[in-house]
Structure formats: structure tokens, C-alpha cells
Design brief:
With 223 residues, this protein is α+β, with helices and mostly antiparallel strands. The protein contains 6 helices and 5 strands; from the N terminus they run H-H-H-E-H-E-E-H-E-E-H. Helix 3 (41-73) packs across helix 4 and helix 5 (145-154) packs across helix 6 (182-199).
């Protein structure tokens, strides 16, 4: 019988679902911004720094490998791709800088060291293929960085973003309607870059197999 008052209280409990609904609504409203909310400025800054650090590490490591492969093959120029910039031109420029940085002999792990080798590097993202070309000062009389990049970008309807005697950059936008996909056009563009050099006698002729001199990520198993 003592339980009866509790039963009488039941009508009050009926209000509870409404309250729960409110709570639920309230929670939903709170949750929505969480799901849609962009990371805070501090989080973004940290993510940016972490990403840049990884890009520089990848570039530095690739620079050592390029130096080794180019010296071994007697190459003055080298075309390859990197993953981590993911189509971000600014990050790809940083990757190039890391490749060209002078190696510090005191460091346990060598980084960079390929500043004397001209190169064109590619990075595929979802929306575009970023391309950065570099021509060292000693090679600028033989090859125009702007002309080289322009020819390669032009083969896929890309556009140049920055021009200088040593470093030029640009990109090709993905276009599903025209069947232009960053990963799909990357290898043909690397071939285009190498062929441009061949015509100027700056890259070895390779009659047996044009693809042989294309260095992609698979050629660097340590990456």
C-alpha cells in the first residue's frame, strides 16, 4: 500500500519522457556541433605542424635516396612522387626544400643532400595533382624551370601557380567528367617530364623500356 503514492506519482513520471525528449533534443543539439565543428585553431595549428614535420621527414629521406640513385645512374635530373603532401602545393614545396637541404654529417640519420640534382616531384590528392619543379643554379643555362613545368602541366591542362629560376609550382585539377584523376595522370606526367629532358639531352635515352626510369613510391621500399 505504501507503494501506492509512488503509483500516484506515475502521472508526474509521464512528464519524464518529455523531459527525456528534451534531454535527447538537447543532447542532439549539443552533439551536432561536435560532429560538424571544426577543430579549434590550436588543434589545427598542431595538426599543421605535425603534418609539416612528417612531410619534411619524408622529403629529407627521399632526398638521400634521390642523391644515391641519381649518382649511381649518372643522372642530373630526377622525377618522382611523394605521398604525404597529398596534393597540397605548399607542403610539396616544403618537401622539395627538405630534399635539397644540405646533409648534416653530424646527424645520425642523413637527410636531404640532393640540392645539386634537378627534379620534378608530384603529389596526388583527392582534388588535384600538385607538381613542383626545381632546377639548380648550375643547370639553369641548360633548362628553364618554368618551361619544363609548363610543358608537363600543359600535357594535362594544368596551371602554373608560382615561377622562379630555381623553383616553379603548379597543379592539375581532378576532373571526373574528363577522366582526369590525380593518381591516374601522375605516371604519364612523370614520363612527360623525363621525355622533355631527353629532348634536351639532359636525361639518358632508354630504348628498352620507357617506364624503367620512372621512379614512383614502389621504387623506394624503405618509405
Amino acid at each position: 500500500k505504501e507503494a501506492a503514492p509512488k503509483k500516484e506519482a506515475a502521472p508526474k513520471k509521464e512528464a519524464a519522457p518529455k523531459k527525456e525528449a528534451k534531454d535527447k533534443k538537447g543532447k542532439d543539439q549539443k552533439d551536432e556541433p561536435k560532429e560538424a565543428a571544426a577543430p579549434s585553431a590550436e588543434d589545427l595549428e598542431k595538426m599543421k605542424k605535425d603534418k609539416l614535420k612528417k612531410v619534411i621527414k619524408e622529403g629529407g629521406k627521399r632526398g638521400v635516396e634521390i642523391e644515391g640513385a641519381a649518382d649511381m645512374g649518372g643522372l642530373q635530373f630526377f622525377c618522382t612522387s611523394v605521398d604525404l603532401p597529398e596534393g597540397d602545393l605548399d607542403l610539396l614545396v616544403e618537401s622539395m626544400k627538405a630534399m635539397n637541404a644540405k646533409s648534416d654529417p653530424t646527424e645520425e640519420e642523413r637527410k636531404g643532400g640532393s640540392g645539386h640534382i634537378g627534379k620534378m616531384i608530384f603529389s596526388a590528392g583527392a582534388e588535384r595533382l600538385a607538381v613542383v619543379a626545381y632546377v639548380p643554379e648550375a643547370k639553369q643555362a641548360e633548362l628553364s624551370c618554368e618551361e619544363w613545368l609548363g610543358a608537363v602541366l600543359g600535357s594535362q591542362g594544368g596551371e602554373t601557380v608560382s615561377k622562379a629560376k630555381d623553383v616553379c609550382s603548379g597543379f592539375v585539377k581532378a576532373d571526373a567528367d574528363k577522366n582526369v584523376f590525380p593518381l591516374k595522370i601522375r605516371e604519364p606526367m612523370i614520363l612527360e617530364a623525363n621525355n622533355f629532358l631527353r629532348k634536351r639531352g639532359l636525361f639518358p635515352e632508354d630504348d628498352s623500356d620507357d617506364d624503367e626510369m620512372v621512379f614512383g613510391d614502389d621504387d623506394f621500399p624503405s618509405m
